[in-house]
Amino acid sequence: MGNGLYSFPKVRHLRKSSDFQRVRQGGKRRHSSNFIIVVLHRSNSLTRLGLTVSRKVGGAVQRNRVKRLVREFFRNNINELPVGIDISIIAKIGAADINYSRICEELRFLVEK
Question: Please, is 28 exposed, middle or buried when counting C-beta atoms within 10 Å of its C-beta (0-12, 13-18, 19+)?
């Protein structure tokens, strides 16, 4: 299993509907060609991620693939992300057709800020 350095524990998830609503109402939106990214800065020191991938993106296999790839980006870059933010990522219709490197390009601005 390893040492958990690149794990994605449940405390890093946005899980409640109220958390997603808080991020969408108070956060800053950023659009890319395949994602809508909403970021809300908080005083808590924990960075959390929430994913929304609707059936418009594709079937269950395609939706789960998109979620796996976005989580992989989050795991690999968690140490470079700002501390104390909630990130809500909403996949657009074309997100199922892109590869991991394209996802990294579109989400790179999260690491750069």
Answer: exposed
